[in-house]
Design a protein that fits this description.
Order of helices and strands: HEEEHEEEE
Number of strands: 7
Number of domains: 1
Largest sheet: 5 strands, mixed, barrel
CATH architecture: Beta Barrel
Shape: globular
Distance between the termini: 59 Å
Number of helices: 2
Radius of gyration: 18 Å
């Protein structure tokens, strides 16, 4: 029975490595932030394992761009004053995030600022990040 318990533990830990691996940030530029002063929220998914924030912006050329950002799960956002209703479709906000290195319209959210100046942070600010 001891051997069976040991094997169960080994099996459990061997299965958790792939799950934990998906949390990497290697595909994102974590040394600088992209910021859009006027982003229009189109959807927010308040779910585990990560919330998703979708928004639209208009490029300098007048093209509509659709972006998707990964956010922490609700259990991490709630202590930072986020709620399921913090962002609603149609909200116009300033949004700052770490963009994908390959130029695709994806990123990891850092913070959202509302027109009244209220700011919601998804993560503690990184001192080594500069906004572009």
């Amino acid at each position: 029975m001891k051997r069976g318990g040991f094997l169960a533990v080994v099996l459990l830990f061997s299965m958790t490595r792939p799950v934990m691996a998906h949390h990497g940030t290697a595909g994102y530029d974590m040394t600088s932030m992209t910021a859009f002063a006027k982003a229009t929220i189109t959807e927010i998914e308040w779910t585990n394992p990560h919330c998703q924030i979708r928004f639209d912006v208009t490029s300098d050329k007048g093209d509509l761009q659709h972006w998707t950002l990964e956010a922490p799960p609700p259990s991490m956002l709630a202590p930072r004053e986020w709620t399921r209703k913090s962002l609603q479709a149609g909200d116009a906000v300033k949004i700052e995030f770490h963009a994908a290195k390959n130029g695709s319209p994806f990123g990891i959210i850092q913070r959202v600022t509302f027109p009244d100046g209220k700011m919601l942070r998804a993560y503690p600010d990184r001192p080594d990040s500069k906004t572009e």
